[in-house]
Structures are given as structure tokens and as C-alpha cells.
Amino acid sequence: MILEIRNLTKLYGATTAARDVSLSLEKGEFFCLLGPSGCGKSTILRMIAGFERPDSGQILLNGVPITDLPPYRRDVNTVFQNYALFPNMNVHRNISYGLRIKGIAQMELRTRVEEAIAMVGLGGLEERMPAQLSGGQQQRVALARALVNRPAVLLLDEPMSALDKKIAEQTRTELVELQKRIGITFVFVTHNQTEALAMAHRVAVMKAGVIEQCDEPRGIYERPATRFVAEFIGSMNFFDGTVVATDPDGCTLHVTGDTSVRLQKPSDVTAGDDVVFMIRPERLKMSLVGPQEYENSINGIIRESVYMGETTVYRIELRPGNTVTVHVQNYLPGMTEGFYEPGEEVHLMWSKTSGGVIRA
Amino acid sequence: MEGGLSRANDLRIGKGWWLRVLSSLVVLFLLSPLLLLMFFSFNASRNITSWSGFTLDWYAVAFSDRALWIAVRNSLIIAVASTAASTVLGTLAALALGKYSFRGRALFQSLLHVPIIIPEIIFGISLLALFVFIRMPLGIVSIICAHITFSISFVTLIVLAKVRNFDRNLENACLDLGATRLQAFFHVVLPAISPGIIAGALFAFTLSLDDFVVTFFTAGPGSSTLPLKIYSLIKFGITPAVNAVSTILIVLTASTIIAATLIQTGAQTSRAIRLFSYVLLGVIGIALCAFTLFSPREERVVRLYIFAEYIDQSILTDFQKTYGVKVTQDYTNSNEELLSKLQMGATGYDIIVPTGFMVQIMIREGLIAPLNPRNIPNLEHIDPTFRKLWYDPDGRYSVPYAYGFTGFVYNSSVVTDPVDSWNVMWDERYAGKLLMVDDMREVFAVSYIRLGYPPTDTDPSHLRQALELLMRQKPLLRKYEANLINDLLINGDALIAQDWSGNAFRLNQEHPEFKFVLPKEGCMMFIDNMCIPKKSTHKEEAELFLNFLLRPDVSARNMRKILYAMPNPDARRLLDENLRRDTILFPPVDDLSRYRITHDIGEFTIEMERAWTELRGT
Ligand SMILES: Nc1ncnc2c1ncn2[C@@H]1O[C@H](COP(=O)(O)OP(=O)(O)O)[C@@H](O)[C@H]1O
Ligand SMILES: [Mg+2]
Description:
The structure holds two protein chains of two kinds.
Chain A: E1 3-12, E2 15-25, E3 30-34, H1 41-49, E4 56-61, E5 64-65, E6 76-79, H2 91-102, H3 106-120, H4 135-147, E7 153-157, H5 165-182, E8 185-190, H6 193-199, E9 202-207, E10 210-215, H7 217-222, H8 227-232, E11 237-247, E12 250-255, E13 259-263, E14 274-279, E15 285-287, E16 296-307, E17 311-319, E18 322-329, E19 345-350, E20 356-359
Parallel strand pairs in A: 3-8, 3-9, 6-7, 7-8
Antiparallel strand pairs in A: 1-2, 1-4, 4-5, 9-10, 11-12, 11-14, 12-13, 14-20, 15-19, 16-17, 16-19, 17-18
Chain B: H1 17-40, H2 57-64, H3 66-99, H4 105-111, H5 114-117, H6 120-133, H7 140-165, H8 168-176, H9 181-210, H10 213-218, H11 226-233, H12 240-264, H13 271-293, E1 301-306, H14 313-323, E2 326-331, H15 335-343, E3 351-352, H16 356-365, E4 368-369, E5 399-411, E6 434-437, H17 440-451, H18 460-473, E7 477-481, H19 485-491, E8 496-500, H20 501-510, E9 514-517, E10 523-530, E11 532-533, H21 539-550, H22 552-562, H23 569-572, H24 577-580, E12 595-597, H25 604-617
Parallel strand pairs in B: 1-2, 1-3, 6-7, 6-8, 10-12
Antiparallel strand pairs in B: 4-11, 5-8, 5-9, 5-10
Helix pairs in contact in B: 1-12, 2-12, 3-7, 3-9, 3-11, 3-13, 7-9, 8-9, 9-12, 12-13, 17-18, 18-25
């Protein structure tokens, strides 16, 4: 375990920036803190970096407590949200700053800086001033400036948020590859769920200073632990329901009154519990004809359809006051017919392995 | 950093020729007074409005005028010291305000605006009250403290703007990369806010260099600055020597600013230019230090509080050589100023030079000390007519120094009628070509004299009559003028002008067609006197100096230099023929009754001021 955070709490007046946050990171892990803005992600990074002192809790790096050390005595470096490049120094001097401060010998300094510059692909821009660089180039300088110090952990605070979409997507893959190559542990902060799912080994989803769920991307998406996580990542349909029976394989629920739903997934509910049944819009199969090979089905009337290019989003009324959202891929192979029209009655079907429950 | 702002734009916004013309005009408008001043520092004539050939004489005069350089030196010492202190303190305050929150921060920040908002004159008076209260001697140190108090606000606010804009993460990035807080401060924080610091320092420097009001109140003996000196010169007209000094100062200041700007633009300028700028700043710095070093302090001193250029500097030097007592000058602007300074408790002056009526007031107020005639045997050279005048009936408190008259000057090549009466100032034939001096007492005095009342009269109905008479004169006047009387006469804008004899004498020396008249009805006369304030700590030396001044050869030399008459017949005998017989300088004064010496009219001044406002306003 390279980095361990124990019960970290930080309050700003009445605002809770972090409450009882605990995390353990393995060496070489690409870890992501995901959450809406203002939920306390940066605050946690800043406490790890040492710019902020926690109200309580502990931070250990390689098993050694660093909670009370000043930033310059922690083997951790940061890529700041707006990069925080030194405007009065050129690219080379920005990157070599950490080494110069530590008094690294000229020879070594030069090779290490060259290495870092090559690593992020900034060759030829050494003499430029930060103001003369594009956003993407600035981000690379910030990355090189941190990595040249070979920290135990690299903290990245929304490094992509200032880039335009295309460049951000390209950078995403580059960053993942770079991390794999150098093997440094990354703590990556973002409010962008796609980024988190695509890049991280593990993701911690935060809300108002609290970690709601910490899991691999697949676990976060497939088995959201709370309603917040389910809603924040992707979109989700929720149904209030009751457990009618449980068995070793899963359980049977009643939702929207008396529709029976079979769920074949381990969950710690018992008969009689009030629960919320959740299912992703793309897991619902829509058809004009009745139940086919799926275990569960329900019918309703299309109230609205929105064409989104890749998919079409339908809002379907199951019964007055109870609607679900369904995503249907446009141009499925073999699907020759056109789109469904509002007003049509449709059947929604899903398998017993789709969806999940959380306690109400 | 600034690169983004100056980038050319595709729409060519801001490229139109009219914008260039407009901005050139604005710059010209801002700079033209300075350029004009620099231009006239090379003018052979001493008048501002006429050019009579190129000369470097005024620079020679300026360089050899020790008193002027002492004022320059004082200004620079004060400016450098107050700038250094206020820049450091202001920057620290800005950092505290911008980076930390603490109890009372909002209050502190609003208090910063106080010295900026509050009228300077009130600020000056309150500082003076404070210094007197805490018994801090007035002088260079008190002026420096005063300048720091207002400069600090400006520096703090300017630097604070930069600190607010400063991205805290830059500092964090330094710490993150292994720098300590101190290293982070010098590597990143300071460079980021340095444009603010430099701007603040330059602002503080210029504020200090040209501050008049606050300096005026907090100055003490030995600390007259250039602005104080220049303002005091107004009594005798500003000479091009002052223009020369100002030119030198402008060049000095401008090169400081240019150097600072070059340094700030950083990477865009070449190494050579930046090196040059640092060298330039270094040279300026050394020059300033050199200034501050010359002139060691002496134990025995006499501090003179006098109008600028009202005494021959070489006499002071000679006195020092003979008696080992140093004489320093500080500059006053008016009798009223002198009075208020002494009433406020200013100490350290050993000799002051009040006009007659002010001597009377000061005796009454107990501000001046009686003289010991035994220490001033040269009093015997004084014309007895000038001793024991009404304002000092026993002659115990004052020694008459110099005197002059207010008559009128006319251009004899145009005005050919015999003119010997004030009536000519009401003569419709010269309508639009007449000038009266811009001085309430002098103007009303003429009116009173024409009406046959003494100028000391305090009857309100007589004042009404005098006002009516002046109201009738006003349409005939070109204007009321104080400083440019000679210039307007030389230009031909005026033919006849009420004028002081000293002024008239100078004009007559250069342009003999201008004649001075002391009208037969009578005219105003002033007598300036030397007195020793009660609080003087060098009374003995002061009396020694007064005695020296009255020595006929010294007095003659003094008269030759300042060109004012002195009531010292033995000295007058030593003057050159042309000076001795000059009727402007020495009109016959065996009987002073023809001349009206300005009295204090006490409370009646308020009535007269009301009438004066009415006259000027309509
Ligand atoms: N220095 C501070 N003083 C007061 N409140 C702060 C400070 N820094 C952050 N906060 C508050 O703490 C919460 C978490 O902030 P932050 O960690 O920056 O959020 P995120 O990075 O997730 O957007 C926010 O509500 C923010 O307003
Ligand atoms: Mg943030």
C-alpha cells in the first residue's frame, strides 16, 4: 500500500469539504476521485499534497504518517487545475524547477529534464514562455514539471477540464499509457464520469465530502451502491418496490404496485423490505410485440421521443405519474423498421440479471 | 504575460488613423507643459512668455546655487526614504490583506482609503498637530514620516490588486516542487506582484517628490524641499534657473521610469537593454546617495526662515567662514504662513522675516523675543526714519531689512502723456490695456488712496465707496494678475500696470522703456523686518548674524544681489553710481508720511474679502 488515508475530515465553517474519508491505494494504481464540483475532491488532494491541514484523520505515504509535514517534505507532486505554470519562467525552467530547488547536479538535471520533455512530447518548445503555449501544451508542461521529480504519488486536479473535447479525449489515452509505462501511482480528480470510467483502475465517487462508493469502473456502473452514484453516472430509472421473496440466487420484487420483477443478483435484502429497483435505460428492450425471451416485462405508452444521433431516448408512461426512460440504439443490425411514435403502446423487457436494488 | 493584450487583431480594431491622431494629441496635451518648461530653461530672457535666444546660463546659475541644490537634495532624501519605507510596509500590508483573513481585515482595508479621501490640507494639519503633541522635532524625519503615511496607502492598494490577482496555486506549485515558503516568495510571488510593487514605488516616489501641502505643514528648519522653495520664489518671480532644475529632475524621473519599464517587460527585451537599465538605475541610485552625503552638520547654526532668493547666499558662506556658525535657509510663502507656523508651536527657526504689520501681531502674540541692542552695534547704520515705526515703537523687536513700494509701471514708448497719478488707472483711453495686481489689500489701497481715506480705514461705508470705484475700473482692466505682470507688459498686452518696485526694477533693467511711478496721491509701502522667534535656541548666534548683515559692505553686497532697497545709507554709499541713484529702487523717502505702510485690519479683513469676492465675481 503506497498511500493510505484514514478518517480524513475537513470543515470550512459550515461547509463539509471532507468527512471521514478513508482510502487505500496500491502502488502503480490509477485512482480516480469523481464527484460534482464543490464536493471536496480538490480539498482531499490539497490535504494529500500538504497545502491544507485536515481537522482530523491521518495520511500515510509508504506507511509513514505525513499529515503534519509541509508540502516540500512530501514525496508527492501535483498537476494543478489551471496548471499553475510559473509565468516568469520558460518551459525548461518550469520543468527543471523542482530539481534545481533540490540541488540536483547539472548533468543529471539536464538528462532528467530532457527525459521528461521527451516523455510528454514537448521537444522544441523549451524556450517558450507559458503564455505562448496552447492549453494542451501547458498541460504537458505541468505534467512534466511534476513527473521529473519522480514522486511516489502524482496528484492530478482536473487536468483535462480546460481542454476542448477532442484534445481531452486524445490526451486521455496518452495519459493512461504514460501512467502504465512509468508505474507511478496517480490520484486523478475529475467531475467527468466518462473520464473516470475510461481511465481509472478504481473510482471513488464523492458527494458533499463523503465517499459514496469506491470500486472498479464496472462495479460503479453496474452496481451503484447509492441512488446518488446511480444518478450521477449515466442515467437510471428508479422504481419503488417491495421484496416478496428471496432465495440464494436473488429475489423477487413487486414494483409500481403489482408488477413482479425477478432479479438474479446477490443482495442483502429480506422479504418485506421496502426497496428501490433501478435499471439503466439502455438495458430495457422495447418492442411492439409481447414478452419474448426476457424474464421481466412491463408495458406503457410512448409519451415523448428525442432523437440523439447514436440513440433515441423515449419517455414511456407505465401508468399515470410513473414514467421510465429507454435508450434505443439507432441502426441496430437487422433492425430495418423505423422509429416508434409517441402514442404507441409498447412492451419493455429486461433480463433477470439486469438492474439492481438499494434500500429505500 | 502581457503578450495577449497587444496582439494584432483581424478586425484591425484600434488601427484607424484618427485613433492615432487622437492618442498623439492626448499625449501632447499631457506633456506640452513639461516640454514648454524644458524649452524655456534654455531661454536667455528671464520672462516666461518671450524667447530671446538660447543659453545654458540658467543651468550654470542652477548648478552654482547651493541653496537650490540643498532643496533638491532634501526632496530626494525624503522621496527615497519615504518610498523605500512605504514600499516595504505597503507590500507587506498588501500581502497580509490579500492572503490571510484575520479579525478587522475589512476595517483595516477601509482605513487605507482615509489618507486618499481626506483633504490633503486636513491631513497635513493633523500630522503637524500630532508631531507637535508627541514633541517630535519638525524636519526631514517628520516629513519622511508624513510622506510614508500617505504613500503607504497608495502602495498597499496598488500591490493589493496584484496580490488579489495572484493565483495562490503558483505558490503551492513551488512548495509542491520542494521550495520553502521563503523560496516560493522570491521565485514566484515577488515576480508576479513586482509590477505592482514597482508601480507603487514609482507612485510613492513622485507623490513624495511633488508633495507640497503635507510637506508644508510638517517641514521644520533645515528641511525645505524643492516644491517649498519654488513656491516661495513666487514672490520675486520664477527664474529660468528653476526651469533648469526642473528639467534635470524631469529627465532624472523619466529615465527612472523608462528603466523600470524596460526591466519589467522582461523576456521581450534583449539582455543588453536590461543590463543597461540596471546600470542606469544603479547610477541614479549612486547619484542620489552622493547628494545625501555632501553637507556635514554643524554644531552652531542659525536657521533662517525667509522668502526664497531674498538673501545673498554668499553672505551666509562668508559668515560661516568668519564666525564658524552655519546659516541655513527654509522658505516661507507669506506672512500668514509664518504666523500660523509659529502659533502651531514650530521650533528651530532663529530668524524670521515678517512684514511690518505682522511684526505688530507677533509682538502682541508674544511670538518674538526682544533684541539686545548691545549685541547689534551695527544698528547705528540704519536710517533713523525706519526705526521705531508704529509697528514696533521702541524698536526692540525688529530690525528693518528691506523695503519696497507698490506703484505702477507704464510703457513710455506708447504712453507719452505725463503720468503721475492713480487717475491713469481709470483712464478710458487705455481701456483693456490696464493691469491691477491680484492682491486684495493692494487693490483696495489704491481705491482708498484715491478717495482720500487711509488704507487702514475700517468704516464699512468707505469700503462700499471703494468697491464702487473699483467696479467702475473693472471694465477697463485687462485682468488682475499676480505672476506674469512683466510678461504681459513686454508682450504689449498691457501698457500700464500696478506693480511692485522690485519687479519694476527688474523689468526696467532689461526694457528701459518701462518706467515706474510712485503716484503723487501716495502709495503702499512694505518694510520687511528681521526678528528672532521666542523659541529660538540660538539667539546669540542670530544676533551675531543680524549684526553681520547690517555691516555696510555686507548690506551693499546683499542689495546688489537681491535688488531690494535696504534702509542702510552707509551701505548705499558703497553701491555703483547707477544703482545708488536709481529712483525705482531708492525713491526719496525722507518723509514716510506719503507712503502707507500696510496695517493689520483685523476682523475687518472679512468685510473686505466679501467686497473683493463681489468685485472679482461680477
Ligand atoms: N479555502 C476555502 N475556504 C472556504 N471554503 C472552501 C475553501 N476551499 C474550498 N471550500 C469549499 O469546500 C467545498 C469543497 O471544495 P473543493 O474541494 O474545491 O471542491 P471540488 O474540487 O470538488 O470542486 C466547496 O463547497 C468549497 O466552496
Ligand atoms: Mg476542484
